[in-house]
Amino acid sequence: MTNENNSYRGFKSKSAFMSFIRSGLRRMWGRQYLPKREFIAQNRRRVALGRNGALIWGGVCEHCQGEYKATEMEVDHIKSNHKLTEIEDISSYCDSLFCPLDNMRYLCKPCHKIITYADRHNLTFKEARAEKQAIAFSKLPPKKQNAMLEVWGEMDDNITNAKKRRNAARTHYLKQI
Description:
The protein has a three-stranded antiparallel beta sheet. A two-stranded antiparallel ribbon has the order 4-5. It has seven helices and five strands. Helix 5 crosses helix 7. The chain is mainly alpha-helical. The longest helix is centred in the N-terminal third of the chain and has 19 residues, at 14-32. It has a domain at 123-177.
């Protein structure tokens, strides 16, 4: 399967090739899969989130029950088994990806990201949300992190590096939820 340039089917690696296949299948599911489009049509509704409270297309997140604009909503697979790392996985990946309507739910983008993170890392929704907040916190400048930890009452003399600041932020976010 490799040629003299040490490539995999024209790609740098097998992983790059499988990523290409995965993205192509997901793009087809996102744009052309009729049951997904039908699901959206069944679950969308007019919400008063336009200018001056005008009604626009949107929906209700099945997790947080918040109302969102259509552009802020995503369709999620309730039961997902989206592993495509080998050619042999393509059939089961397609079966999972191109699923029936009863395996879909309408979520806001923040809830969808947290649920996906929780599934991938075997965490509860609460733990995943705290972890994602701690990740965002860790991208702030250290001085800002220290100031925030001080305000939260989480700062002490043992917090001397980025890892400890992130752990303190995670602890804070878990307390808040």
